[in-house]
Design brief:
Layout lengths: L3 E6 L5 E3 L6 H31 L5 H55 L21 H30 L7 H35 L2 H21 L13 H14 L58 H18 L2 H11 L1 H6 L2 E2 L1 E2 L2 E2 L7 H26 L6 H32 L6 E4 L4 H24 L6 H33 L15 H29 L15
Parallel strand pairs: 3-6
Antiparallel strand pairs: 1-2, 4-5
Helix pairs in contact: 1-2, 1-3, 1-4, 1-5, 2-3, 2-5, 2-13, 4-5, 4-10, 7-14, 8-12, 8-13, 8-14, 10-12, 11-12, 11-14, 12-13
Length: 571
């Protein structure tokens, strides 16, 4: 078997020698940088709401929105990172530049917690209701550091898994098996980083020093970057094939330009350049887009070469790729709300925990460390599904586990139950708060919150893996990266929807109510149970819409219509 990887190049731009490049050593360096990225991002996000409320003296709703906007922007920037990696920078440069940006952002955040001039003075202990909030300059430094981290996270998440996969040759049976192990270990490293963040780092933030915790994040990223660059000569690189976003825009522009033209009766007359082995055959859905493949006057020559201008005429395969992406959109839209409920775990659940009894003997559990139950729920759910559900399902139904759509639907249903559990636990906490006014630590165990962590965590295990599987396997071969970006954008939009709902609900309940609204500065005087109940109802409605969308997708997904006529003439 040849030692040359035909589809990859080395750092000099030559065909990659598989005996000298790729494999587990460079893949391990890539996994290391992802581990530190998770450590930094989650170590900051999971406990940021308590810092904003406690040290920056912001309201509960404002603090929650800053966290969700930060996380939402991090995932939204994955789209930008993927575009830059596909079109200009390549995955290696995107990972390297993004890691440096995130390191700078984390160092700046550590500095802002250290310097007294970058955060407001402590509240007056004799009159704690009159705390001086952070001024515009202090908030500006905070926002700059957070969004540098978000920019770095977006670039890393868009490219690091793909660059790791590039180190293995899918056409080599041995390396293909290692590729499957790589993705398992990739998820393991993500989870490990999250576990360390919500336990060790949160404990350091609460009991030792926030500056030290954020400094650890920055130093760990710096070490990971140094190790990452050591592997430069060992990595395998992929040549850029252009951005699928450009291909989509070309189809839309070409179809719009030819909107007044009539489609030929014989679809074999539509333009096609792909070979029989790689082409996607014509389907009857979204026929307006077929006009992009009409061969019109003036399409014959481009620069003296017999080829069509892709902005005026696109091949049938390009058109069908766009159709396939459009078919994904109803599923895409109905999975966004899951991540809105997920956002509550990082914000209001931590705020709830901070008011409850958290001691085990003499040990005080940091409020943000309760999210460890969420992470454990993900791991246990995946382990049970892999070792128990899949074998039983294969014996019973003859299939290797649930389909991707079935996993997503189960995750959405668990989120509905999880929000119902959150509503009930908040009702209990509120009743204790009313019976003990003015008490800083309520005589109710924080473990009342565990059911919502477990249910939403199990829901994430099914939803995340189902979405990733769905968007990768159901997308055209040339748009796998774009489909992965679509999946990550659902997480981003889920956080933004959370911020929007908090803003709207607080504005309405403050305007028409007599108190501080559902989500005020004092969580004990608000009605977080009503907000959770609203999310539960919205999640239930969304679950029903997803079932409709999944049934429509299954019904509309048909086998390609094979051409029984001669291939289209060349332009």
């Amino acid at each position: 078997m040849s030692s040359i990887h035909a589809q990859a190049i080395d750092f000099k731009g030559l065909p990659a020698d598989k005996s000298k490049t790729g494999g587990w050593i460079p893949a391990g360096l890539i996994l290391g940088i992802e581990l530190c990225e998770r450590l930094s991002t989650m170590g900051i996000a999971v406990n940021l709401v308590t810092y904003l409320a406690g040290q920056m003296h912001l309201s509960t709703s404002a603090s929650a929105n800053i966290v969700t906007d930060f996380m939402g922007t991090s995932f939204l920037l994955c789209f930008l990172g993927g575009f830059l990696a596909d079109s200009f920078l390549g995955r290696f440069r995107t990972v390297a530049i993004s890691a440096v940006i995130q390191t700078i952002g984390t160092a700046l955040l550590a500095l802002s917690t250290r310097l007294p001039s970058l955060h407001p003075p402590p509240c007056d202990t004799t009159n704690s209701d009159k705390c001086e909030p952070a001024n515009n300059f202090q908030m500006g430094i905070l926002y700059l550091s957070l969004y540098l981290i978000a920019l770095g996270t977006g670039g890393l998440k868009s490219s690091v898994s793909g660059f790791g996969a590039d180190q293995f040759d899918e056409n080599d049976e041995k390396e293909k098996a290692n590729l499957a192990y790589f993705f398992n270990r990739f998820f393991f490293f993500i989870t490990t980083g999250t576990l360390v963040a919500v336990t060790v780092l949160v404990y350091i933030q609460e009991e030792v020093s926030r500056t030290l915790a954020y400094g650890i994040c920055s130093v760990s990223m710096f070490i990971a970057i140094f190790a990452f660059f050591l592997g430069t000569k060992r990595y395998r690189y992929q040549r850029s094939h252009g951005s699928p976003i450009s291909h989509i825009l070309q189809v839309i522009v070409a179809a719009t330009r030819k909107r007044k033209m009539n489609l030929p009766y014989n679809t074999g007359l539509l333009y096609e350049t792909f070979s029989d082995t790689s082409r996607i055959h014509h389907t009857d859905q979204f026929r307006f887009l077929d006009k992009a493949a009409i061969i019109g006057e003036g399409d014959h020559v481009k620069g003296g070469i017999s080829d069509c201008n892709p902005w005026t005429t696109c091949s049938v395969t390009r058109v069908e790729e766009v159709k396939a992406v459009i078919r994904l959109l109803p599923i895409w839209a109905t999975t966004i709300l899951f991540w809105t409920t997920y956002a509550q775990i990082l914000t209001f659940s931590v705020e709830q925990a901070s008011t409850m009894k958290r001691s085990i003997g003499s040990f005080q559990i940091p409020a943000a460390s309760l999210t460890v139950f969420f992470v454990l729920a993900v791991l246990v759910t995946l382990a049970v599904y892999d070792r128990v559900v899949i074998p039983l399902w294969k014996k019973w139904r003859g299939k290797a586990g649930l389909t991707n759509l079935q996993r997503i639907s189960l995750g959405l249903l668990l989120s509905v139950i999880g929000m119902a559990a959150a509503t009930m636990s908040e009702l209990k906490r509120q009743s204790v708060a009313r019976a003990n006014p003015g008490t800083s630590v309520l005589p109710v165990s924080v473990f009342f919150l565990i059911p919502q962590f477990l249910l939403i965590g199990a829901g994430e295990a099914f939803t995340y893996t189902g979405q990733l599987d769905f968007f990768i396997t159901e997308s055209p071969k040339g748009m796998k990266g774009l489909s992965t970006g679509l999946f990550l954008v659902t997480i981003s939009l889920g956080f933004f929807v959370s911020s929007f709902l908090v803003f709207i609900i607080q504005k309405i309940t403050t305007s028409f109510g007599s108190g501080q609204g559902w989500i005020g500065d004092n969580i004990n005087k608000g009605r977080l149970d009503c907000f959770y109940g609203l999310l539960c109802m919205l999640s239930f409605i969304n679950f029903g819409l997803f079932i409709v969308a999944a049934n429509w997708y299954t019904a509309q997904k048909s086998e390609p219509i094979l051409q029984k006529i001669s291939p289209a003439e060349e332009c």
